[in-house]
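Reminder to self: keep the SMILES exactly as supplied, no canonicalising. Ligand is manganese (II) ion.
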Amino acid sequence: MKSLRKAIWLLSLGLFSFSLASAQSPEYYKNRRGEILSRLINAAALIPSAWEGELESFRQSNNFFYLTGIEQPDLLLLLAPSARSPETLFLPARNLEEGSMSEAWTGAKLGPGKGAEEQTGIAKTAAKNTFDFTFANLAGGLDKLYFDYTPGPLEGPVSAGEVFLRALRDKYPHLQILPFSRLVDSLRTVKDSSEIRTLQQAVDITGASLRETIPQVRPGMFEYEVEALIEYGFARRGSQRPGFPSIVGSGPNTTVLHYDKNRRKIGAGELVLMDVGAEFDYYTADITRTVPADGRFTDRQREIYQLVLEAQKAGFKAVRPGVTLKEVHQAAKNVIDSAGYGQYFIHYTSHFLGMDVHDVGSREIPLSPGMIITVEPGIYLPAESLGVRLEDDVLVTADGCRVMSASIPKEVREIEALMQSK
Ligand SMILES: [Mn+2]
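Structure tokens returned for the bound complex:
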């Protein structure tokens, strides 16, 4: 074990010393960029990496990571079939001086040159300050530019992406600038086998942490303690971070959908709702379990719980190629409607899942094999301080679906047995 660790450590020094986080080969990402290149006609695509704030931990932007596997800020990827090199990565010069932005402070980084081209598999790298010149030579022959940028709030400071976009608009008024999501979303929605494996790891980490934490839940504990136990479980199992802010709500807070303050003390006889997901290598799980703090459901809690469970199973049954999320929602909603609780099911049943917890993909598209969605009905009764939501992650297969989180306890007897197992 020890020698294996050492080998991995040595390997990581050799291969990944320049923030290439991904376990994938450079060819894997080259193929993806090829997919984008084949969709560009009289057009180019420009994908900036995430920016780095000095006191926040860095996470690459999903689209940039999807196309390069590189975890480094301040980069620009230009894809342009009509350019001499169809793919160019622009990087800042390496900073080997002293000071807070130097590599001595922030760790070794990739710089422009042969080494970066070999490590990333991107045909050409160039210094970032040559971008304007390169793009000016190219722009005359283009009609469209796909630019990857998420608009910020209408008020508040202007983002770096916004500044960049405005400068492009001013300089190249003939260019139609379109969101890059139009090219990449349909690719990201269908997961390949390695993405499915990665997301399965995220699901398994989440499941193991829930299984470990649920027996420890009891009245008198604070919601944040439950949160901390779950997130510690994630970290111990190799998750880099939670994929979204963990929701741990007890009693009245089980009826607040996006409750993430997690400050309340859990009371006797209450339900505790945990909506959590570990992120693993840029893919996140999204699982919800609702458990009784005392280890046993009251009759009323069990009644509502069973109804939500039945609705969820109806949702699973509806998942197969060709249907839309609307139909999955209707299947789950019918069960809750016919029991008379329709008005207390106040959200949608499904969303796409992947690099983002609410991943790209629209409710209107027909499902196809390789898509991953959540199925998460709920009933919320604020007057009774009683909310139940159950959420699992589901892979669409050729003939139906596979519930990726099926092994995480959920039946009433399973939950009660798990809680009494401590
Ligand atoms: Mn969800």
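Points to follow up:
The chain is about 35% helix and 15% strand.
Residues 193-213 form the longest helix (21 residues).
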